[in-house]
Amino acid sequence: MTTRTDRFGSCAKGLLIAIAGFTAACSGAGSTSSPGGGLPLPSPSPLLAITYFTSGFTTERLTAIATSPDGNFWFADAGGTVGRMTPSGQVNDIPIFSGNSIDDIAAGADGNMWFTVSHVGAGGVGRITPMGIFTLYFLSGGVPLSSVCKGPDGNLWFTVESTSEIGRISPTGTATKFATGPNSGPMSIVTGPDGNVWFTEALDHSIGRSTPAGGITQFVVGPSPHNGFFPGLGDLAFGADGHVWFPNSVNNTIRRMTSAVAFSQFYAGITPNAGLGAITLGPDGNMWFTEQALNQIARITPTGTVTELKTAGTPVDITAGPDGNVWFAQINPPGIGRVALH
Fold first, then answer.
1. Span 69-89, average pLDDT
2. Would you say the C-alpha torsion 222, 225, 226, 227 has a positive or negative sign?
3. What pTM value is reported for the model?
């Protein structure tokens, strides 16, 4: 276990300061102008205007975004950094494990943020408080972790793709792993409304479900009726309808699995070769997802109507904000975008 105390400080707009060994870069409010100024970006719809926050980011390779209990946004970076941005655009970041990827971040039941640490020989889970104090828990086996979420039992749950395992870790750092089957490759993990955790399995084309005690059930996702290809599973999220929604990157479709294990798929309105990535339930009751190959995000209604929105960079993750809007992390350039829903 490694603990370091680095505290966030208050910043004036544009000020660059060092506090207890880390750099906090601060920015002001975002704008709809293009990164670095210039002409305003075209708004895809007057009802869905996007505001960008790109000032103050010292990281170049954002990987994830999540909302914290205090209403701020936390992001992770492939270079080993975790950061926080307020809704007004003030950015603070802190190096956690230089040169090593932090692939996912999520709010825990303890009021802290939890994140994965991926490094050959030193994979683990980290916790960071609202004040920037972080603790790292390195797990046995030293393998990279893929995803993390708040579990129904007050623990954090995670996936280990390379060893085909999922696991849980208590707020004090006690970890338990559960095998998901040979060559299953669990990827993304979320808590369902049924009190279980659900996850995708990229290698055996399945959706998995685990009870808090580790009882695992798998549901095979067959080839797409659209083109006959088996799915490329990555992210998943529960919709307002209580069903599992997940992108199929190989099939360029969004699919839905009901509690009765009935599958539906939607592809009308999705641009071919979109590079579907992350998905989340929006505050408007629709599902929102990223189209990384096209620099777009998109919305799909429960009945399958798709609306695509052009973004100023490559969106890598997406989440619902406490303000009733949709927020996403992007690279090229690095930053965070807000889609105004009201």
1. 94
2. positive
3. 0.86
